[in-house]
Write a structure and sequence with these properties.
Blueprint (H helix, E strand, L loop, with lengths): L9 H7 L14 E5 L11 E5 L4 H7 L1 H11 L4 E7 L5 E11 L2 E7 L3 H8 L2 E5 L12 E10 L3 H11 L5 E17 L2 E8 L3 E6 L1
Antiparallel strand pairs: 1-2, 3-4, 3-6, 4-5, 5-8, 6-7, 7-8, 8-9, 9-10
Keywords: Oxidoreductase
InterPro entries: F420H2_bilvrd_red/Heme_oxyg, Pyridox_Oxase_N, Split_barrel_FMN-bd
Protein name: Pyridoxamine 5'-phosphate oxidase family protein
Length: 206
């Protein structure tokens, strides 16, 4: 999927169009249930309750410094690794260009792609930032988890296509964020930071 990982920040989005879907920074965090990985995905397996999450601009409004730094970390490289769930519940890893614009994190992919099929079946995903060169974690190791919501608004799709110019036909998903994690090493100390809409920012040093 063609597109830059660097886009409009949440602060700029309000002047350019819809900032978040479907609600603003004060939106409550609700849950949804999906089939478990031990059985069929059509609802016969045990349910798994997961937070619905919030849009990227909401996350950045609640924890500006941390979330902005994670977005900027994704922006250092265009290609990242997307984790989805296959129909049998096993994980699938594929490459993806993360795209931040209109105050949202977008997941774009070609129509007919396996990862698109995965997300239509079970919207849970994890996006891991390109680690970059070296092994010292000097740039930080970041990942985002959440739900991928299919975008069906034709006006939004046209606006996105006009700015990104992706190969067509394409699928577009808006990320509802349930967790953001950053791991970094400073002076031989590993610092693990995690943010969740219902719990805020937590920092652990090891």
């Amino acid at each position: 999927m063609t597109g830059s990982a660097e886009g409009d920040s949440g602060a700029d989005a309000g002047a350019r169009g819809p900032e978040v879907w479907p609600s603003g920074p004060g939106a409550p965090v609700t849950t949804a249930s999906y089939p478990g990985t031990s059985g069929a995905r059509a609802g016969s397996g045990p349910g798994v309750a997961v937070p619905r999450g919030v849009g990227w601009a909401v996350a950045e409004a609640r924890e500006p410094g941390f979330v902005r730094e994670v977005r900027e970390r994704f922006g250092r490289y265009p290609h990242h690794v997307l984790g989805t769930l296959r129909a049998d519940g096993s994980p699938r890893l594929t490459g993806l260009e993360a795209d931040f614009r209109f105050g949202e994190l977008w997941l774009g992919m070609l129509t007919g792609s396996r990862k698109g099929t995965d997300l239509h079946t079970d919207p849970r995903f994890a996006l891991h930032a390109n680690p970059g060169p070296g092994t010292d974690l000097s740039e930080g190791d970041v990942r985002v988890s959440g739900r991928a919501v299919p975008m069906t608004d034709e006006e939004v799709i046209r606006r996105y296509a006009a700015e990104v110019r992706p190969p067509e036909p394409f699928l577009l998903f808006r990320a509802e964020v349930t967790e953001i994690v950053r791991v970094a090493v400073r002076d031989a100390t590993m610092i693990v930071q995690s943010w969740r809409p219902d719990a805020g920012l937590r920092t652990v040093r090891r």
